[in-house]
Amino acid sequence: MMHPDERPDTTAGDPEIRLGESAISSLLAHYFQFEETLGMNTARGAAQSVQSPRPTRHPLLSRVIPGMSYADDTGTEDLSSPEDLPKRIIAVIPAYNEELTIGTVVLATRQYVDHVIVVDDGSTDKTAHVATLAGAEVLRHPLNLGKAQALMKGFARARHYGPLAVVMLDADGQHNPAEIPELAKPVLSGKADMVVGSRFLNGTNRIPKYRVLGQKTLDLATKVGSGIPCTDSQSGFRVLGRRALANLDFYSEGYNIESDMLAHFAGRGLTIAEVPIGITYDVTNGHKKHALTHGLDVLSHIIGIIGYRRPLITFGIPGAVMTFLGAGMSVYTVTELYTGGAFHSVMFVGGITLLILGLLLVTTSLILNSLVQVVKMGKA
Question: Which is more confidently placed, 313 or 277?
Answer without folding.
Answer: 277
